[in-house]
Amino acid sequence: MDMGRLDGKRALVTAAGQGIGRASVLAMAAEGAQVFATDINEAALAGLGDGIEAFVLDVRDPDSVAQGMARARPDVLFNCAGFVHHGSVLEAQDEEWDFALDLNVRSMFRTMRAALPGMLERGGGSIINMSSACSSVIGAPNRFIYGTTKAAVIGMTKSVAVDFITRGIRCNCICPGTVESPSWHDRVKSLGEQVGSYEEALRQFVSRQPMGRVAKAEEIAALVVYLASDESAFTTGQPFVIDGGWSG
Ligand SMILES: NC(=O)c1ccc[n+]([C@@H]2O[C@H](COP(=O)([O-])OP(=O)(O)OC[C@H]3O[C@@H](n4cnc5c(N)ncnc54)[C@H](O)[C@@H]3O)[C@@H](O)[C@H]2O)c1
Fold first, then answer.
1. CB of 72 within 8 A of CB of 16?
2. What is the mean pLDDT of each successive set of 10 residues along the chain, which is 248 residues long?
């Protein structure tokens, strides 16, 4: 039997019900990892297949995070949960700011703090945080709150990487351009209401991608597998931009 690139590793994924999280669960399982697929939406976790353990984990709830980490004892933690608010600094609402800082940034502090002691005890681990090309890499129109939180993810990633670099822990983050996913389809629909049609909104989203298309979730999942595996053993503290040349 072929060896999988993630044989023997236990991997926990947040926001695994759809989009990049779900694609990453399937890709890591295909490479031999024992995968724990978690999401706030239980129904979305259905149908992932045999051998993948799926359970509800709300990254905004410290008890839920603690229980999830105790159950999974992950060697690989993929912090994928995040939400996109629309608008410039002038439209941003305090409640949106609080929500996004909690879901996009503080949640990763919670999960990393809960997962790290076990990783250290077992002698190593790989943490992969979901940032975005829209962050400190590039400014995107009407992504004030989102870009700010995703820039914070890069800083947090570097900080964790440097603190644990001699103790077997690696921490990297991923900065995708636009990726096809259910929430992206919702964003196209809502832009369509402003610009006249779904087709025009789609044209605007695609036109900012120099390759003339958006990414498939599986293309991001391939990078997740690499960062989870020992193939990436010499990399830590890095933002990995995977954006079809958007910021290039
Ligand atoms: N799609 C893109 O274009 C794109 C680009 C760059 C970065 N990202 C980032 O990738 C990540 C995933 O985005 P996507 O578009 O692939 O998926 P998505 O937005 O379609 O799905 C998000 C999932 O997160 C879950 N979720 C929401 N709140 C949660 C909570 N409190 N705890 C646990 N799970 C929760 C939802 O139930 C849902 O299944 C996000 O962090 C997003 O910011 C996406």
1. no
2. 89 98 98 98 96 97 98 98 97 98 98 98 98 98 97 98 98 98 95 94 91 97 98 98 95
CB contact burial 223-243 (16+ within 10 A = b; e otherwise): bbbbbbbeebeeebbbbbbbb
Residues carrying an active site annotation: 146
Using a 6 Å CB cutoff, which residues line ligand 1?
14-15, 17-21, 39-41, 44, 58-60, 80-82, 84, 103, 130, 132, 176, 178-179, 181-184, 217
Residue 118 host element (H or E): helix 107-122
Cβ within 8 Å of residue 243, ≥6 positions away: 133, 137, 138, 175, 176, 177, 209, 215
Contact (Cβ atoms closer than 8 angstroms) between residue 201 and residue 214: no
Q: How far is the CA of 112 from the centre of ligand 1 (A)?
A: 18
Question: Domain 10-177+216-241's class?
Answer: alpha beta
- H/E run at residue 170: strand 169-176
How remote is the CA of residue 89 from the centroid of ligand 1, in Å? 22
Please name which of 19, 7, 9 lies closest in space to residue 186, comparing C-alpha atoms.
19
Per-residue buried b or exposed e for 22-35, using 16+ beta carbons within 10 Å of the residue's own CB: bbbbbbbbebbbbb
Distance in Å, CA 15 to ligand 1 centroid: 6
- For the chain, which residues make up each domain, given as ranges? 10-177+216-241, 180-214
- Among residues 228, 236, 230, the alpha carbon closest in space to that of 10 is found at 228
CA distance 225 to 28: 6
